[in-house]
Amino acid sequence: MTADTEILQHIKHAIVQRKFIADKTTAYRLFNGFYEGCPGLAIDRYEETLVILEHGSPGENHEIIEKISHWAMESLENITSLILKQRQSSDSRLVNGILIEGSKICQSIVEFNVKYAVDLQINQDASFYLDTRNLRRWLLDHSEGLRVLNTFAYTGSLGVAAGVGNASMVVQTDLNKNFLDIAQKSWDLNNLDPDKSKVITGDFFRITGKMRNEARLFDCVIVDPPYFSTTEAGRIDLQNDFLRLINKVRPLVAHQGWLILINNALFLSGEAFTQELNKICESPYLSFKKIIPVPQDVTGYPNTILDAPPVNPAPFNHPTKIAILQAFRKDKRK
Predict the structure, then answer these.
(1) When comparing pLDDT for 237 and 281, which is higher?
(2) Same CATH topology for 3-46+48-105 and 131-327?
(3) Triad 43, 310, 1: Cα angle to 5°
């Protein structure tokens, strides 16, 4: 058996494990090569469009990608197009993705009966994070009547889930207006009340600073930053300085409100992150309540996993570490 044939067998085996996912969502990971037999290659499905993500040197998986493309277009039900993203390319067009099969590209997906607009070629990612699906489910179930602030909102899927969950107000902020335009499209797709939504384009540090000066309070604050970023107003470093971001939003959380933290630093162990959370929760004003697991189509399944992450994420189940804390205010707690 050739290496390409073996990888294709791994992919077929992985897809079989995911046969019931379509009951919950039309967007999911079909194959995670980092854990399931082909490091550097991942395949996602968005309705009728497959997205192949090549994380290694551009072209190093050319032959297997050709085989996958031909097989997928012939064998996978209702697939009409295929996009290839080469994450390490120097050409932004290839990073954002080129259409290599078909013509009609998915424009929206459905997850837990919620509609989300997508633009699969707007960015190196596909405009919708699959690893936070269980968090969107939690927000659907726990946002009734809440004032929600979604920072680093990207295309706003978390905020839209809160909106469908009947939040009283959802404020979404991001540095990129194009991403927030997609958030607005998703809000409209679900016929949500426009008066309950506000999008703010701008820098996290300036926006949260202004909110602190105005003594704004939210019942739920979501912090989902990029791994590393620098602007004129501040620096983000999830590996070494996540606590600084928490301190920026902590004053914005109302009494008994939720603080949702997402850290996707690949080389930050779950143990180190947990220790960091436990340390800040030594205060009587923060309590570590819950870990939200990443869904299995992203992590791989017990009978498909061949490789482990480079750093152990336990007690989390994936390098994308999602934690829910509860906040208490000094002026309210007896």
Answers:
(1) 281
(2) no
(3) 50
Cα separation, 262 vs 282, whole angstroms: 20
Residue that is written with structure tokens 């960015």 in the block: 123
Q: Which CATH fold would you assign to the domain 131-327? A: Rossmann fold (3.40.50)
| pLDDT (mean) for 233-252 | 83
Instruction: Let me know how many helices (H) and strands (E) the chain has, helices first.
Output: 11, 16
Domain boundaries defined on the chain: 3-46+48-105, 131-327
Token pair for residue 321?
A: 């570490």
Task: Check residue 1 and give its pLDDT.
Answer: 57
What token pair was written down for 87? 């994450």
Burial class of 304 by CB neighbour count within 10 A (0 to 12, 13 to 18, 19+): buried
CA distances to 8, 9, 28, 295 from 20, rounded to whole Å, are 21, 20, 11, 13
Rg of the chain over Cα atoms, rounded to whole angstroms, equals 20
In the predicted model, what is the mean pLDDT of residues 178-204? Answer: 98
pLDDT surpasses 80 at 108? yes
Tokens of 243: 């606590």
pLDDT tens readout for residues 291-326: 999 999 999 999 999 999 999 999 999 999 999 999
The CATH class, in words, for 3-46+48-105 is alpha beta
* Runs of H (alpha helix) within the chain: 3-17, 33-36, 62-75, 92-96, 133-142, 157-164, 177-189, 204-213, 242-249, 270-280, 296-299
In sequence order, what are the residues at sequence separation of 6 or more whose Cβ sits closer than 8 angstroms to the Cβ of residue 241? 235
- What does pTM read for this prediction? 0.95
Residue whose entry in the numeric block shows the structure tokens 């179930």: 141
Residue 294 DSSP code: P
State pLDDT tens for residues 122-174: 999 999 999 999 999 999 999 999 999 999 999 999 999 999 999 999 999 99
DSSP labels, 90-116: S-HHHHH-EEEEES----EEEETTEEE
